[in-house]
Amino acid sequence: MGKIKTIGVLTSGGDAPGMNAAIRAVTRAGICNGFTVKGIYRGYEGLIHDEVKTFTTEDVSGIITRGGTILKTVRSKEFTTPEGRQKAYDVCKKEEIDALVVIGGNGSLTGAWNFGTEFDFPVIGIPGTIDNDLYGTDATIGYDTTMNTIMECVDRIRDTANSHERIFFVEVMGRDAGFLAQNCAIACGAEAAIVPEETTDVDQLAQFMSRGIRKSKKSCIVIVSESPKCGALYYADRVKKEFPNFDVRVSILGHLQRGGSPSALDRILASCMGVGAIQAIMQGQRNVMIGYRDGDAVLVPFSECIRTDKRFDKRLITVLNELSI
Ligand code: F6P
């Protein structure tokens, strides 16, 4: 492949606050370094169907404050097929796109990896997901904002829990990961967290109930990671059956937690990662994700960040347990 002149940027998977800041950074750093930058709408779906626009610096004006993604986002089924990826490659040729920056989570970066290796095409990934479940970076774009949003919601729920002396099971997102639930439980002073990384059988829950709901504590908040079978409703149901004298309520935060203006941390992270993606392209990098570890920017091969599970810090369980007595 010859010299890279044009870079395409897209967002894919679930939207996350800070994605716009990343789009802005890729666009402006790209233009600043002499590249043409093309925005690709609706993720890989838009790439397949040639929904592409050349971006000027003005196209990304005023978006750093906005949640969601101005490029829109889709979880593309077609791109998971070789035929879909071939169509996407043909559009890249037609649009003279020489490199791609993909902002998204695990699934999106898996697509990026497949595409990059199949067509020997330079792709750089930027981790954008509220779940923070990508290996190789301490934080993903959107995670900090979402934790703050959850914290605000739970602080409000706490007023009602206290006033009515109720037990609240608050369900948060995270897909298969408990980072949001565990850390938000600590931030909210919750009495417990139920996360997929730790098996919470009903005995454990009963133990907690007898420990947590003591004479002095008549209300409590349990943060539960979403799960198709064992979400907040499941645990609330079990507790209601086993402890009928408790007043139990469920609050599922759902998509309320994914939108909103990004926090300062997410804006800065996204800005640095966007600039880092352009620098990586200039260094001839490909098939890597930009990560931040211990304050340093790192390049993590797709093969590593996709295949490796991010470590769940079990010490956080001790922190919560010891502080919720
Ligand atoms: O990956 C981000 C995420 O918000 C997960 O936490 C959640 O499981 C999923 O996306 C929800 O997806 P959708 O918006 O398609 O319902």
Notable characteristics:
single chain, 325 residues, alpha/beta, Rossmann fold, 2 domains, seven-stranded mixed beta sheet, four-stranded parallel beta sheet, binds 6-O-phosphono-beta-D-fructofuranose
How would you describe this structure to a colleague?
The mean pLDDT is 94. The chain folds into two domains: 6-142 and 262-307, Rossmann fold (3-Layer(aba) Sandwich); 143-258, Rossmann fold (3-Layer(aba) Sandwich), CATH 3.40.50. The protein is elongated. It has a seven-stranded mixed beta sheet, with helices on both faces. The chain has a four-stranded parallel beta sheet with strand order 7-8-6-9. The termini are far apart. It has helices at residues 19-32, 43-48, 82-94, 106-118, 143-164, 179-188, 202-212, 232-242, 264-282, 302-307, 315-323, and strands at 6-11, 36-40, 52-55, 99-104, 123-127, 167-172, 192-194, 220-225, 248-252, 288-293, 296-301. The longest helix has 22 residues, at 143-164. Strand 4, helix 4 and strand 5 form a beta-alpha-beta unit. The protein is built from eleven helices and eleven strands. The relative contact order is 0.17. Helix 1 runs parallel beside helix 9, helix 5 (143-164) crosses helix 6 and helix 6 runs parallel beside helix 11. The protein binds 6-O-phosphono-beta-D-fructofuranose (F6P). Residues 14, 105, 129-131, 173-175, 226, 258 line the site of 6-O-phosphono-beta-D-fructofuranose.
